[in-house]
Amino acid sequence: MERRRFLSRSAAVAAGTALAAGPFQGVAARAEHGGGRGRGYGPLKPVPDARDGAVRLHLPEGFRYRSFNPAGSPLSDGTATPGRHDGMAAFRGPRGSVVLVRNHEVNGPVGAFGDPATAYDRAAGGGTCTVRVTPHGEVLGAHVSLNGTQMNCSGGAMPWGSWITCEETVNGPDVGDDFTGADNTLLEQKHGYVFEVPVHGRGRARPIRSAGRFAHEAAAFDARSGAVYLTEDNFGFPSGLYRYLPPRHPMDAGRLLDGGRLQMLAVKGRPGADLSVGQPKGAVYATTWVDIDDPDPTFTGRPANDVAIQAVGAQGRERGAAVFSRLEGAVVHRGVVYFVSTQGGAPVTQPPPSGFGDGRGQVWAYDTRGGRLRLVVESPGDVRLDLPDNITHGPRGTLVLCEDGDGDNLMRGLTLRGELFDFARLEPVAGDSGAEFAGSTFAPGGDTLFVNVQSRAGLSFAIRGPWRRGPF
User: Fold this and answer.
1) What is the Cα–Cα distance from 79 to 387, expressed in whole angstroms?
2) For the chain: N or C, fewer Cβ within 10 A?
3) d(CA 40, CA 424)
4) Cα–chain-centroid distance for residue 80?
5) CATH (domain of 86)
6) Would you say 389 and 340 are in contact if contact means Cβ atoms under 8 Å apart?
7) Where does the signal sequence lie (predicted)?
8) What b-and-e string marks burial along 261-270, b requiring 16 or more CB atoms within 10 Å of the CB?
9) Which residue, among 464, 406, 467, 401, has the nearest Cα to 437 in the 3D structure?
10) pLDDT above 60 for 21
11) Is the pLDDT confidence value at 18 over 80?
């Protein structure tokens, strides 16, 4: 077992370093402020769903899709699929199948789905489902893989065979009422953690407390150092970029261990640098990291949710950590962590979006070897890039950005030349103007792009087509 883990670790490190000609090889090396207009795969047109013929997506010529596992449909054990489909990762399954581990961003003390005896918190309605499908999106089996968590937003695929799922909240019985007004005293446990879910089987429902209690969004793993990079989506307040340094390299341990050190990114020579505002073209910063002394606070007197949700980040900012606006998706490619600031950048529309940050989005790149931070792209307007959220990359390194904008909801590509292009548009969901793409992830081999639509209900898609004629 140890030898296999060593070989797997070596392969993962090689994948992140062997092809890298420099610290910003690929997208971050060529991108320009604002991003050029790329051709991508051509204009979008309505395409019927292979499942029932309804038009749900607009795609380029030659692409097709099938939806599956909508909210309310039964899993293999009879449990109804929860709603609010969000972050997701795809893993190689048996006999050519694909295993998807998918988040459900359910808030409030609404009761756990699945077996309450296995729940982390029997009152909380979020968690993950694991779904085994064909590359065409035909469901072969599905089960509850973590329940009793809350607001499971995004996360990250880990090369030792796990999904790290992230709670975007700090709710708990020690915190005042949720921002929706829900009574947090009905919860049994503290929330705001990351949990590990194995590709096969169930998660152990044990939070990694040393990785922090804050509004977690995404996780990205650096195989060379063993660090897990964590984004924070603090909607109404400043956010930060974190890294968790576990006590043992996860590729050796075979899992993510608790008991490590949590740190927050800072800009050298510029304590408290505000990177949420408009940035100069090609901005590059030397960085350092500051320690978080109390990553897992327990509150007394039930402070307001707005106070509790800033408690961990405030420790970092007191030591000079950089300020971002709503950090959401994150992914590692060739030793670079690409992450999204949803409302970062200079104001480009009036009125600005609600929440912290007046821009329409930034994409940043952090070089894990040299410690440099670079702006990849900053939105010049919502027509080009509108509040990017989840992020992944294709087989050739082109980034896939899921938007969370106010009008048409799109998936866009960001090419190695720094060009933005439209890849998919969501047909408006009747009665749900907030429906958005989430959880995009390519299957092993790159022939299928899986993605979710998060809405009042929710469902998943398998998209296939002539990938090789374009930049993905």
Assistant:
1) 34
2) N
3) 11
4) 24
5) 2.120.10.30
6) yes
7) 1-20
8) bbbbbbbeee
9) 401
10) no
11) no
Instruction: Give Cα separations from 363 to 63, 341, 452 (angstroms).
Output: 27, 6, 21
pLDDT in tens, 234-263: 999 999 999 999 999 999 999 999 999 999
State residue 313 phi and psi, 5-degree precision. Answer: -60, -35
| Range of lowest pLDDT (201-205, 353-357, 387-391, 456-460) | 456-460
Q: Which residue segment(s) compose the domain that 133 sits in?
A: 2-469
CA distance 18 to 276: 33
Q: What is the mean pLDDT of the chain?
A: 92
| Residue 321 backbone dihedrals phi, psi, to 5 degrees | -60, 150
Tokens of 163: 């999904």
Please give the structure tokens belonging to residue 31: 């991108």
Tokens matching residue 299? 């509150």
- Pick 12 or 366 by higher pLDDT: 366
Contact 317, 309 (CB under 8 A): no
> Residue 47 is encoded by which pair of tokens?
């395409």
Domain count of the fold of the chain: 1
Residues in the chain: 472
The runs of H, that is alpha helices, within 163-303 are 250-253
